[in-house]
Queue: 2 jobs
Job 1
Amino acid sequence: MKQINTPEFFKSLFTGTFEGGSMRSSIERISRALILTTLLVVLVSAIMLPPGGNANVIEEDDYLGKFSYDDFETAKACGSACHSLIYEQWKQAMMSQAYVHHWDEIEYFKLAVPHAEKDENVAEVKAGCNGCHAPLSYMAGDVPPPKPEEGSRANEAVTCDVCHTIVGIKEETPYNFNWVIRPGGPKQGPRPAEMVDSPHHEVAKSDFLNKAEFCGSCHNEMSPYGVWVKSTHLEWSEGPYAEEGVRCHDCHMTKAKSRTASMGNEYDDAWMHLFHGAHDPGKVRGTIEVRIQPDIREVIPGEPVKFTVALFNQKTGHKFPTGSVEDRIVWLHVEAIDADGNVYHLPVDAKGFEGEEYTIAADVLAYQDMGIALDLPGFAGVQRDGVPFGDRIFRMPYFDPQGRMTIQQWNTKSLGVDYRIGPRETKLETYTFTPPYEVALGTMKVHATINYQKLVQPVAEFLEVPEEETEIIEVNTHFTEVTVID
Ligand code: HEC
Ligand code: HEC
Ligand code: HEC
Ligand code: HEC
């Protein structure tokens, strides 16, 4: 066998000679041209790639059962003596509760596990949910993990030593926990090793943890039917914040002057582990700004007046709502109050776009596919919205393989109209109202309120999910006045 000398081979491409021989036939010339073109394409694409574009992509096999719980340190060990502030922040964030949180427990054990055991199309989620919610259990092959009440290490959920030993990603697009992890290796962090003096562990400067793609590895999810059922990172990447270099971290892990370890240095830009989102009413409040105006200021009973509501998303880096969109509901409620205090509820004016019926609250049933897991054949479903009929809903409906609306994101085969409010988007809604003849004369106030609920009420009631999940958060409100005259 001939030994190929690489530099010699490349030289031969240009000169037409190789290994002392010559390439004279037309076939040789064509293949030479082909190889040159390929080289050129490779070279050009290497130059065109954004800096660090795919530097973190490392191909690797699935981790199900590849490690053991003991390969990871506990959050307590990280937090008890050294990283106490970070530990307490994390403790109060959903990150540490992703397995024990009641609604998660109910959805996994009451719906997902039994459904996965009955329907082979979704069998993978029995293990798969844990890839993001209880990564230690997934990697230990503990499927399903013990229930929260048993106090196993599944309860540690998204723990310090998961994030801080992640070094990259298996594919270009982050989704379905496709991160690459090195348990036992140095802790990945924002600062170079020579700056950090840890008595307990080695550190390495990460050029991946600081990227939105790191977050996206758990904040994008594809269903077994190949549908994007969670796309917070993808929404962000198509929006204005990505372009401006404002990452997830800048809003959810803000920087403050602080020590990061009790005996360590103080930094001006220490990363806070707040991870505050839908479960922090303060984070949700004010996300959308609301203004309402009438088209005329003096109205006559029996004649229409049109109110226009402008809704501006000034706070989120992705759409609102994002994440578990199948559960969330955001709605705009408008009502008029006349001088005598009579209240009139105003239904939204339909715009006529396709799929709009899912964005106007109505008296319809949905979520019939919960009957599969619950052994209720022919289950009629529960109310779809649980908010006043006629209110505008900002949502994207998820559909099961039978085309019925579902809150089971793993059983989602298609998506409906995306009528959520994008980052920095303004949506306008109109409400045409004809005051009845018996309306009181004088000042009439018209209020527009945008509300948010983490889980649609009828589903929560049906599954007995704790009330905190259906707390109504007032995102914003505004009012205007008109005068009713004779
Ligand atoms: C290993 C998977 C994983 C990674 C990596 C990850 N997250 Fe999360 N994140 C989760 C899970 C799981 C939850 C909690 C789900 C729940 O409510 O049970 C969560 C919750 C959150 C919440 C709170 C949502 C709420 O409802 O209040 C925010 C905010 C958040 N993550 C932001 C981030 C940011 C920013 C990053 C990157 C710096 C990140 N996450 C990286 C898995 C991950
Ligand atoms: C969801 C992932 C995630 C979890 C969970 C997490 N961290 Fe972090 N941590 C990060 C990210 C992202 C950074 C900033 C990294 C960067 O920008 O390179 C960070 C930074 C740090 C830093 C360095 C801060 C600085 O400014 O120098 C320390 C120390 C740290 N984390 C400790 C912990 C401890 C202890 C826990 C558990 C109580 C924990 N982290 C949990 C993602 C996480
Ligand atoms: C410009 C600030 C900003 C940026 C950038 C941003 N977010 Fe958010 N995020 C918010 C606000 C405000 C909320 C609260 C309103 C809501 O629930 O959507 C939120 C909510 C969330 C939630 C809770 C959603 C839910 O319903 O459970 C998650 C998870 C989240 N963000 C993750 C991310 C991730 C991951 C990124 C980066 C890909 C990111 N965020 C980028 C501001 C931001
Ligand atoms: C790719 C990662 C990933 C997978 C896989 C995943 N989740 Fe989640 N899940 C998240 C993240 C991140 C959140 C929280 C923030 C949000 O709403 O975006 C979340 C939120 C939730 C919530 C809502 C929590 C709340 O309080 O509102 C439930 C319930 C839930 N997941 C259950 C499941 C079940 C059951 C499965 C499996 C069928 C599953 N998840 C699979 C990442 C994942």
Job 2
Amino acid sequence: MLVLPKRDVLTVRVAKGQPLLCVLYLLLFHFFLFMFLWAYYQTIFGSHPGVPGEFYLSSDEVQRIESEDRSGEQQEILKEISRDKALPVYTRTYGGGIRYCHICKIIKPDRCHHCSVCDRCILKMDHHCPWVNNCVGYGNYKFFVLFLMYALLFCLYVAITTLPYFVQFWQDMQDSDAARFHILFLFLASIMFAISVTILFCMHIRLSLVNQSTLESFRSPIFRHGPDKEGFSRGSASGNFHDIFGSRKSHWFLPMFTSAGDGVNWPMQARDQDSDRLLDDDRDEDLSPGEESPSRDTQQFKKSIQAGTKYDSTSNDVVVPIEPNTGDRVQLVLEPGHIAGTT
Ligand SMILES: [Zn+2]
Ligand SMILES: [Zn+2]
């Protein structure tokens, strides 16, 4: 039989007439604890979806690249492979080339980065988190945000419920019951953790609403038109929120995977999808002799198309909203050298 010294026994004082309140305290305590541990478990052990097979280079393709000493030639081979496989790649390196991982031997999908700790490429890598000993990326970013949220709620709950005893501690200094020091430590520890988690949680909520990863907030992804921090934004906070938390409201706050997409294809603003595809500029360069290149006016007009404008590259039709509230539309027909036609 275990006998504790009297000074270490925590005395629980239940106020008369408040048993229901005590039950409520216990239920809420275990609810927040359970949700926190569930989200934490999912963040640690949640698996990252692998990079799809089409992004991997075959041994022959790797050999071709490694046999070339000049980076320019290597880039040409990578462009050829990307074009043949029609890979959905829109971002590029700072030098304008295709992003390639020499360790995994893959053409990196957009938002994918190689983690030197995990020693693999992670889809939509956010950062490597030592607190969960795992990368935070497309597969577990929702779990990570919920982990922060429930950690914050748990700390606040503990701080609020111990606050009356903390005040009582300072009002009755004569009573040196050891249990009072436990309450004091519990209150201060929960407040300190709550403050630090609040900062991190607010930062990731902001990033979620603008559809940025931590890496992208420090180093903007490069598109054909240059660096663009908001290149992957859906254009609205709610759209960006749904990208991570899904469309089913009942699942938003459960640590279950509901993120949209596949981690490889990213909805981008119309201008990017039509004028910013990585290989589009290569098509211009590959025009056969005598074939007319799109005029500068046409290219400039395409670039000037704002988000929300729909452009059909196959028919050269552009649908521009005139008054969003009335639903009126004007349809423009793009032709090399001039713009004509309205309906
Ligand atoms: Zn890699
Ligand atoms: Zn990692």
